[in-house]
Amino acid sequence: MASTFEAQAPTTTPEVGGMGHSRKRVEDARFIRGKGTYIEDINLPGQLWLDIVRSPYAHARIKGIDASEALKVPGVAAVVTGKDLEGYGLHWMPTLAGDKQAVLPVDTVLFQSQEVAAVVATSRYAAADGVAAVLVDYEPLPVIVDPYKALEPGAPVLREDREQKDNHIWHWESGDSSATDAALEGSALRVKEHIYLPRIHVASIETCGMVADWDAVNGHLTLHMTSQAPHVIRTVVAIIAGAAGLPIPEHKIRVKTHDIGGGFGGKVPAYPGYILAAAASFLTGKPVKWIEDRSENLQADSFARDYHIDAELGVSADGRITALKAKTIADHGAYDAQAAPLKFHAGLFNVITGSYDYPSAFVEVDGAYTNKAPGGVAYRCSFRVTEAVHAIERLVDIAAHERGEDPAEFRLRNFIPPEKFPYTSPTGWEYDSGDYGTALRKAMDLIGYDELRREQAAKRERGELMGIGICSFTEIVGAGPSPDFDIVGLKMNDGAELRVHPTGKALLRIGSQTQGQGHETTYAQIVAEELGIPASDVAVEYGDTDTAPYGLGTYGSRSTPVSGAATAMASRKVRDKARKLAAHLLEASEDDLEWTNGKFNVKGSPDRAVTIQDIAFAAYTNFPVGMEMGLEAVDYYDPPNFTYPFGSYICVVDIDKGTGQVKIRRFVAVDDCGNIINPMIVDGQIHGGLTMGLAPALYEEIPYDENGNNLAGTFMDYLLPTAVETPAWETGKTITPSPHHPLGAKGVGESATVGAPPAIANAVVDALWHLGVRHIDIPLTPQKVWAILHEKGVS
Amino acid sequence: MTTQHITVEVNGTSEDADVEPRLLLVHFLRDTLGLTGTHVGCDTSNCGACTIHVDGISAKSCTMLAVQADGRSIKTIEGMADGATLHPLQQAFWDQHGLQCGFCTPGMIMQAAWLLDQNPDPSEQEIRWGISGNLCRCTGYVNIVKAIEQAAAEMAAAAEVQTGAPVGAAS
User: Domains along chain A?
Assistant: First the structure.
């Protein structure tokens, strides 16, 4: 059962700083002084700059590329085309989804801003001059931007490189079709809706970039780059090089990430720019630097969502959910670039059954190619969980409204009850722990729900538009158990390596990769919790594949569930050896020792004790004959299950009848991410996640016109919320530990991005329901809402 | 390649250079002087990661040419701390968890410093409008606002001590 405390009570002193302490971040010391080292801050002697020629057309034949004028530009060293790369077998690269993508196309461009040629020059300005001087002769071809049209029989085939001659990528399904149909037919109420989650972009404030450094003498390739998964990149580069017959084996490839200016999933995949920089360094023998412009970033990579969902929910006469059915068309653009576990084409989308207890569900997803940039990457979400939660939470709200019932009451009746955990969902997931009613009631108390409903009724009498929206989400994070979860064959486990030095200080190396989450701070707290070594005595390293243990990286909220667990388990292995050393030092049997607060003492004799620091010194100076010197351990953690963070969010909106503008008056987020490592950082993650949920709910969308032109390719058109649009978020917690995670933690980085959009959308529809509005697709822009008000005769 | 000679005071030090007239000020600071604390996050002057002070006034250094800074005085994030002593805004961003990835932070701190210079006691709404030209993708701004409030209070208290006015006196 959940506790309604804001965090579990710490078991360590503030000086030790284990779990539950709001330890200030150690990494901030450099960031607040402007002394971080981001990719653009890396400069190597003799480096060249790479810039990219991109297609103005969404679909066109490349008839010719004339680089002669570009090569006359002072400083330009080389122009590289697809035909040049073809000579080395480097014109294609694998995507993490098992598809392939053109590094540079040899004959056909498939989306606007696709890479067509690369210019290498002595400065960034000369490279840009070179790009402007490259002449490309295109023959435009018919453009398909609508995935439904792409899947029609006879549609032009976009991917001529495939054996399969249509635009269908894959079909994926989950659940029981006939049981679901039967349950729906027997339902008193059937709620159907078409829900579109538009294409959006993570837009981390730092774009992507690389400094590639090929050392021809030693045969060593160093890739300084923006990557959330550096080990995966190293292996993929080794595979590409091996397939091309290049002499760059994996032990001579080093990926270094340095500081990363935000990732949110956008820095998981390999992009052509990276491969071009590495190839250019290999070909020129010099370091080559590629830094993506914002407009390139918003037009060519990192896209998320683009899910067209037809969903239906059945409800019995007594208001219980009976079944869910969903059929989805997934627009993946020109290449399937999503970074999802290989066997899960639609990621974890079948967690769509949500926080509710019912027996039947059936989910189908079909992927389609279109003339849009490669899609399906990520937007701060664990593999399509946001799309799933949006669909179920909209349907539940529509069902409650159609029944004339309060959406909170409807949810409370249908929640999976606490005593049913672990709970097997209709699509086969085993939810580890949850207490959904407690979280929703806490949110209702914090916001004053009943009073708000009374206010809303009074305002409606006066013709004012006020809405209250709820979202009670369940996430599935921490990919993933090795039997089923891999990225390009690599099992989704993570390593942690802990070395305790003779003086009791420690070095922890991890395979996950911070992009702002604060791993240098929180991972030291895990070691402090497990070993009693003060967090300030633990250095945390990551992001260098030569030294860090293998790991699949940080995305899908998997750091705490997998890498955090590995850190706890490595610490426990160290503690196991420490017990043997303590027995030696105290001349006692191991069984007679007990572990408390960083010390082993003889049971019943608290004074006969040795501290972890005493033990560390003995590990190098006074260990028994036959024992290996040192105090260190490595752990690779294979999670037995996912973790299932959850929460209930309530949003209050006022809508301006004159302009259609939605104003969020209050927003309360109650999250349950299990036990908390650092409450300050958890709140920070939730604040940021809420803002990245607000963004697509009200502002962000990357639309394309019928010619495949990206209509939001700069920050002038793609509207990130500023401090003015962002409300003062209010947060609360319940604590329901994960039963299988060694720390009882669940992960929190993406919960709020998942939970916020439906709460906002539900609030807006709640404000308009009495006018006959039952659904609006996000983003809920003023023009969209105004058009509806106008149509309904409201002014 | 045509170049133009410029003399710019940067963080109290006079810097001389021959630069291309088209060189952006942010690239002069980062690539020529090695002051990499000033960042570039967009190409449309929306994000504010490149915010610095020019003659004491907040400016987006991606929107100025280096030659336009000739004869002027510039302050960047590297010039904010006094040796080991952090500027109150730097300390407050640290105390309040006002940053995560840190990429927007230098620009955000420089803009906040200009805001407090213009309005030493801003309301929450004035702070939010004051930093609305600076985008942060990580924090949701909640703790940035708190940090600026903390720094404003500390700077006001320090100013009262300096001017001899009683600390905590009603203004």
Answer: 28-36+494-637 (3.30.365.10), 42-141+212-289 (3.90.1170.50), 303-479+641-791 (3.30.365.10)
Distance CA A71, CA A62 (A): 20
Which of A696, A695, A754 is closest to A725 using CA atoms? A695
Q: Tell me the per-residue pLDDT of A394-442, one tens digit each, with 9 for 90 and over.
A: 999 999 999 999 999 999 999 999 999 999 999 999 999 999 999 999 9
- Give the SS3 label for residue A421: coil
B169 found inside a domain: no
Does B42 lie at the interface with A, CB-CB under 8 angstroms? yes
Mutate to test the interface with A, among B24, B51, B138, B146 (most CBs of A within 10 A): B138
Q: What is the pLDDT of residue A1?
A: 66
pLDDT per residue of chain B (171 residues) written in tens, 0 to 9: 799 999 999 999 999 999 999 999 999 999 999 999 999 999 999 999 999 999 999 999 999 999 999 999 999 999 999 999 999 999 999 999 999 999 999 999 999 999 999 999 999 999 999 999 999 999 999 999 999 999 999 999 999 888 776 544 444
Last residue of a domain, one of B79, B110, B141: B79
Residues found in chain B: 171
* Any B CB within 8 A of A25 CB: yes
Question: Known catalytic residue: A750?
Answer: yes
Report the C-alpha gap between A420 and A424 in whole angstroms: 9
- B164 vs chain A: nearest CA distance in angstroms? 30
Distance CA A639, CA A642 (A): 7
pLDDT of res. A223? 98
In the predicted model, is pLDDT for residue A488 greater than 80?
yes
Inter-chain Cβ pairs, chain A and chain B, closer than 8 A: 176
Domain region containing B10: 4-79
Whether B154 and B103 share a structural domain = yes
Query: Each residue of A585-617: pLDDT tens digit?
Result: 999 999 999 999 899 999 999 999 999 999 999
Domain of B154: which CATH number?
A: 1.10.150.120
Sheet holding B73-75, edge to edge: B13-19, B4-10, B73-75, B51-54, B57-60
Same structural domain, B108 and B66: no
Of B79, B100, B120, the last residue of a domain is: B79
Minimal CA separation from B161 to chain A, in Å: 26
- Chain B nearest-CA distance from A445, in A, is 22
Establish if B156 touches chain A: CB-CB under 8 angstroms.
no
Instruction: Say if pTM beats, i.e. exceeds, 0.95.
Output: yes
Amino acid type, A774: R
Q: Across the interface, do B132 and A124 touch by the CB < 8 Å criterion? A: no
Our count of domains for chain B comes to 2
CB atoms under 10 Å from CB of B132, counted, come to 17
Res. A284 pLDDT band, cuts 50 70 90: very high
Residues of B in contact with A684 (CB under 8 A): 97, 100, 138-139, 143
* Burial status of residue A519 (CB atoms within 10 A of its CB: 0-12, 13-18, 19 or more): buried
